[in-house]
Amino acid sequence: MNDDKMAFNIEAPDLTQERVGNVGLPGVWHFDSGKPGPSVLFTALVHGNELCGAWALKELLANGVNLQNGKLTLMFCNLAAFDTFDINRHDASRFVDIDFNRVWTEERLSNTDLIETQRAAALRPWVEQADYLLDIHSMHEPAPPVLVVGTLPRNIALGVQAGIADYIIVDPGHPDGVRMRDFGRFGQPSDDAHALLIECGYHGDLAAIDTARFAVQRILALSGVMSAEHLPKEWLEQPREPASKPKVLTVTEPVVAKSMDFTFTQPWQGMELIEKQGTVIGYNNGHPVRTPYDHCTLIMPSLRQLIPGVTVVRFARTEPTPDC
Length: 324
Ligand SMILES: [Zn+2]
What we know:
Bound molecules: zinc ion
Number of domains: 2
Order of helices and strands: EEHEHHHEEHEEHEEEEEEE
Number of strands: 14
Mean pLDDT: 95
Structural class: alpha/beta
Low-confidence stretches: none
Distance between the termini: 41 Å
CATH topology of the largest domain: Aminopeptidase
CATH class of the largest domain: Alpha Beta
Shape: globular
CATH architecture of the largest domain: 3-Layer(aba) Sandwich
């Protein structure tokens, strides 16, 4: 599918001021209330064409950060990829050398040859100091927002409590690398650091910016670092209620493209519920791809970044929503 099949309605923000930062690293801002409380980290532009989070953080900065407790870090992550952004070829600006959200292993972080591994290594101390991470993304195809929480119960509980999206995806990540949200303390069962990744909707959908603002607002409220009265006024004009009972979907397996010869049987958008086990949803290198069980949900199907080894869709089961 060509980029131009779907309207891209989000302009690239001017980040001239935001990239200055205040800690000696481009695009990194850190604020300390001087009072006890958690250290919260919001990240945008992990992928260079995912602009909704950059808009939300830009607005938050422009409004002036006024913390009541703890610390807050704002990070515009992959500026090198963002700098290549072209609205007519937006998929091409996802990353420069390697997907920034697949490099969070010691081995890849020590690679000094790639733009993204260098940048991730520089940002690492700010990731490691965070007690709460909200990593803000958007999606290749139009679909409802989903909160991606990993597999640890504390993150599933926070996701349910936050009510940022109607769907919570419980998943172990991707076969082709480790995400920031699974790195270090965030992935340790015995730690108490929390990490959520919000997929705010289609990359070019203006509604994705609203979802990014709402996600930021909810984590600021739940972490207690900043009260609502200090948020940008326009964020509060149309108050939004948290989702009361998000649907929890557990990813059971990814479908990984074996070659460039991968097709779907339908233009799946994501979150489709396939009733029958064995339904053919695509062809992978000539072989049918079948749903592995009844009532299987398709998570983020997309061929926009198709290369051998990339995840093109994931299968998920519905779980009872935990009380918390
Ligand atoms: Zn992304």
